[in-house]
Amino acid sequence: MRITPLLLLVPAVAHAGDPKPEKAPAAPAEVKATVDAFKGNWTFDSTVTAPGLAKPMTFKITFNCKAVAGGTAVSCDAKAKGPTGPFDAMFVSAYDPYSKAVHFVGFTNNYEVHDHTCQWKGADLECAPLKSGSGPAGAEVTEEVKIHFDKNACTFTSTTHAKDGSTTVFEGKGKK
């Protein structure tokens, strides 16, 4: 009889006399803190100040965030109808017990790919500067992100510095 490799993936069935499996170790408190901070349906009043704008752009943005991966991470679907067109993004946040950091990863319809490494400082999440690309040409930028949580409220600031020395600031104040 031939056993195909696929059958090797089927888990063994427990029998009455088998010992109980060991309980997994408890997750660090930062895992729950990160999930609890981000999860929920958020609405932000947002402002973008950028070179070339006569005045700052204001708009509302929603983040619908749910716990995923067995409650160890949060996935957020972000949407806005801004003055320059629709904004559509996906963000995932999780605490990594190995590096002792929160990873804040995102992808937007503006060709942005974020992979921030952040640290909790009380109720603040401070992210290391991230060098990445922006726009369809992948123009080099450095972004700094700070997020503050206060129960069911949140503020964020994203400051992006372009290679030409210009700065764009994206800020939001939100509630669940």
Written description of the protein model:
This protein has one helix and eleven strands. By secondary structure, the chain is mainly beta. The chain has a single domain, classed as Beta Barrel (Lipocalin), CATH 2.40.128.20. The chain has a ten-stranded antiparallel β-barrel with strand order 1-2-3-4-5-6-7-9-10-11. The radius of gyration is 21 Å and the shape is elongated. The mean pLDDT is 90.
Radius of gyration: 21 Å
Number of strands: 11
Q: What is the CATH topology? A: Lipocalin
Strand order of the largest sheet: 1-2-3-4-5-6-7-9-10-11
Residues in β-strands, percent: over 45%
> Low-confidence stretches at least 5 residues in length (pLDDT < 50)?
none
Please identify the structural class as seen in this structure. mainly beta
Globally, the shape reads elongated
CATH class: Mainly Beta
CATH superfamily: Calycin beta-barrel core domain
The SSE order reads HEEEEEEEEEEE
Mean pLDDT: 90
Distance between the termini: 59 Å
Sketch the major β-sheet. 10 strands, antiparallel, barrel
Number of domains: 1
How many helices?
1
Q: Give the helix proportion (percent range).
A: under 10%
